[in-house]
Amino acid sequence: MTTKLRSMFGTLPQRLLRDTRGVTLAIVALAASVLIGFTGLGVETGLWYAIQRQNQSAADVAALSGAFELLAGQSNGLSQNAAYPDICNLAERDAARNNFTFNAFSCPATTPACTSPSTGKMCANNPPVLGNLAGNNNAVEVILSQQQNTFFANLFLPNVTIKTRAVAAINVLNNPCILALGTSGTDIGEQGNPTICLAPAPGGVCTPPGTCSIAANSTSQSAISLGGNSKITAYTIVTPGGVTTGGAARTFLVSPAEVGAPPVPDPYAGTLTHAFLTTGMPAAPACTKAGTTWSGNCVVPGGSVNSGDTLSAKTQISGGLSFKGTVHLSPGTYWITDGDLTLQNGGGTLDCPNCTPGGAGVTIILTTAMANNGTVGTLTVGSKGNLNLSAPSSGTFAGLVLIQDSNGLPPGTTVTTGSSSKANATITLNGLVYFPDDDKMSFQGGPATGAASCLVLVVKKVTLQGNPSFEDSGCTNAGLTTLPTVKTVTLAE
């Protein structure tokens, strides 16, 4: 008996190792747990991917919204710090509208250098701190973070953090050749059936596509109003308001009109100030006249200038200049103080025979010589009048051809409005025409760009008739290196 027990227990380990009955069930149980875990992980990975796509859409829209608010802030002259709270708040609003769930988030007062928001929160950085556009003040970066608890995959991973990132940036779309600064009512209107061309092909033929744009800063639904058989050929039309077309009016645009857009800033408001424009203005008579030719730095009453005269290269004409006949200008700068420039009906001509488009030229500045209570005049080109001038391509007033002083004027100064050209007038200009306070400008016969291929108009409001044409392709060579810019926003990262 003892021998049998010893034999039985002695062989028990070997028999247990050889016995496979019931092991299959244990293996299946272990394998099933692993398979369920991996299946759950696969299912939840799909869910996480769907959440990431949803949150990426939210980040994209948030970045775009923030960048549009940045553009609006820049257009309204806000500093980066002043614009940031609105940038962040708009980004948060539109992320939430696109189904991102925030967790007790509030925007900071200034932009942080933020890269790792906690769950349910957001980084809104201007400029971005990551990626190719890091440090770019014209871009907004949005980073969203969401922690997702696991279910089936909890055995392996209790939760995951889903982060999404997007960057939207401001880019220059185009340069407007006409910028109307009025903020209400109709900024750009028409009478008759004008053909407005921006810019003409060689030879003056207005053939699409246009190369520069029309911008009107009015918020009115009729900020740009066209009727009859009028036509506009331009790169695009940009306005915070709208465009109305009646009758058979047509637009020929490279890019669809941008309505509801931010206003286009006046790029000259900070530079074309009274102090700058009166730099070098003669203060006392220091000139002589031999026959019909003036020489020296002159201060002359406008009434002393006669038809056939050739004026000196640096002259102040006090009280305005009104004439019928022909007055020639030497290349240089002319200040018309406290009065209007009027080419009378019947053939008044003002030109510069020795000017060269893109070279030597003329700048006419309508301003005041008074310390206070002065008058800034306006421009009138009468019927059959002829105004033919090109801006200088270099020097203090490079690129400036006709300027109405408007910024930083002495106290009590009155700016006269209503610049106009009458029927059958001929206006050929190269350079910047700047009348930012004139809300009654009208052109019946022109204007048209000259050989330098540069004519840019900045005005408050304007009515166009006839067949005016504008162009910016030659502005750099004509000395006008600063142009208004139409900007847009695109996703960059």
What can you tell me about this protein's structure?
The protein is an alpha/beta fold. It folds into two domains: 23-171, no CATH class; 265-487, no CATH class. Helices cover 19% and strands 33% of the residues. The chain is built from four helices and 36 strands. A hairpin with a 2-residue loop joins strand 14 and strand 15. Helix 2 packs across helix 3. The longest helix has 53 residues, at 23-75.
Keywords:
alpha/beta, 493 residues
End-to-end Cα distance, whole Å, is 86 Å
Strand content: 25-35%
Major β-sheet annotation = 17 strands, mixed
Identify the overall geometry.
elongated
User: What is the number of strand segments?
Assistant: 36
- Rg: 36 Å
The tally of structural domains comes to 2
In percent, how helical is the residue content?
10-25%
Mean pLDDT: 86
Low-confidence stretches: none
User: How many helices in DSSP terms?
Assistant: 4
Going by helix content, strand content and strand pairing, the class is alpha/beta
